[in-house]
Specification:
Blueprint lengths: L1 H25 L1 H5 L10 E5 L7 H11 L6 E4 L4 H10 L7 E4 L5 H14 L4 E5 L5 H11 L4 E4 L14 H21 L5
Parallel strand pairs: 1-2, 1-4, 2-3, 4-5
Helix pairs in contact: 3-4, 5-6
Length: about 190
């Protein structure tokens, strides 16, 4: 009797897992994307990375111009100077841009930038990254600086109307599904 109940529970759990996996495959924006909507903050943190279309710095510049925050902190070794230059070209004044150029991972972005945020006593911060990276990016910052209120305002490059994604972003979406549990297991960053 107990064996039969355990067997049925395992089948139900397996079916639910398959259904979630299928839904995640066809609707990744529902699982990976977090957008806090319009907010005002003390700063914008622009994460490096993306797939080369410069969607992240453009999104940060747009939010800055909409007066969502008075400054931008650019984080990420390798992309830091490129993103700084793109922000300048988009009309963000140099005095409003700060660079953290040592971090090489999302975890390091959160760790290193959180130290800057604390030192400057910034309490409300908008995270700008790509839509498929927004859940993990936000979760990392919340994990490493729980006393600061973080918001997510992602760039939507690679995501078309109706939630369809282009082939270029698909690789990043699939990698993100591997990185989410990896960050939970390795660093204790719970994404949900």
């Amino acid at each position: 009797m107990i064996c039969k109940w355990i067997f049925r529970a395992m089948i139900v759990a397996a079916l639910l897992t398959v259904l979630v996996a299928v839904a995640a495959f066809f609707y990744p924006e529902k699982f990976l994307c977090v957008d806090s909507g319009p907010v005002k903050a003390d700063a914008i943190v622009l994460l490096g990375g993306g797939f080369g279309s410069h969607e992240r710095p453009q999104r940060a510049a747009d939010l800055f111009k909409e007066h969502d925050a008075p400054r931008i902190i650019v984080t990420g070794f390798g992309d830091d100077e490129i993103n700084r230059r793109l922000l300048l070209q988009a009309g963000v004044p140099a005095a409003a841009i700060q660079v953290e150029g040592k971090s090489k991972t999302t975890r390091e972005n959160a760790e290193f930038t959180s130290k800057l945020l604390r030192a400057q006593k910034l309490n409300r911060v908008i995270i700008v990254t790509s839509w498929y990276h927004s859940r993990r990016g936000l979760a990392c910052f919340e994990h490493y600086a729980p006393e600061i209120k973080f918001y997510s305002r992602p760039a939507y490059s690679g995501l078309k109307q109706g939630g369809q994604r282009d082939k270029k972003s698909s690789k990043y979406v699939y990698l993100e599904y591997a990185k989410l549990p990896g960050y939970w297991v390795c660093y204790g960053v719970w994404p949900f």
